[in-house]
Design brief:
Length: 192
């Protein structure tokens, strides 16, 4: 059994175990290896203060430079800002009565040309939610015009929580009137 006093008396321990000729030589080799391992651990970045010591020592010795600091993390890609939305000043009822009521589908399409691509805010009652995030609802004033609204896949979870007859507020891009139904695209849910 090796005790603490044996470790403090290392040369004697090696001489007793390896003989007078090899004991001191092996002790010196063991001592140099142990000391070298301690120095290497301290000078590497594994040791918490290794970089600080290395840069301090590098200042004393010409020609030795401290290792460069690690590069900063890469920035996250920026998402392009969505283009500004141009909103119509008309309500869904005004769009219908001023442009489409008592007109053919072609006439309605021609009169609605200036409003196509503009955005509109609507509040209405959910009638149905079809697969692929296609919402059918009634919107507008007393007449309650039908509206179809197409949502992107990011809205699937929120749309899945809606029920028929629930009141929602949406914003969407005007595509066309199909009969007396307003078709909207790129819709966003404002509030359920």
């Amino acid at each position: 059994m090796v005790s603490l006093s044996d470790l403090l008396n290392g040369p004697k321990l090696f001489e007793d175990n390896f003989g007078a000729r090899w004991g001191p030589r092996l002790w010196r080799g063991f001592f140099i290896l142990a000391l070298g391992a301690i120095v290497i651990v301290c000078l590497t970045t594994i040791g918490g203060f290794g970089r600080a010591i290395y840069s301090e020592v590098a200042g004393w010795l010409p020609g030795i430079t401290a290792p460069p600091p690690p590069p900063p993390p890469l920035p996250l890609p920026r998402q392009a800002a969505p283009p500004a939305r141009n909103y119509t000043t008309k309500t869904v009822d005004e769009l219908w009565t001023s442009m489409c009521e008592n007109r053919t589908a072609l006439q309605c399409d021609l009169f609605l040309a200036d409003e196509k691509g503009k955005w509109i805010n609507l509040e209405g009652v959910v009638m149905d939610i079809a697969p692929h995030n296609f919402v059918v609802f009634r919107a507008g004033g007393e007449n309650k015009r039908w509206a179809n609204c197409s949502f992107s896949e990011i809205w699937t979870a929120k749309l899945g929580a809606l029920y028929p007859s629930e009141i929602i507020k949406i914003t969407g891009k005007i595509i066309e009137f199909h009969g007396d139904v307003l078709d909207l695209g790129d819709c966003d849910l404002i509030s359920p």
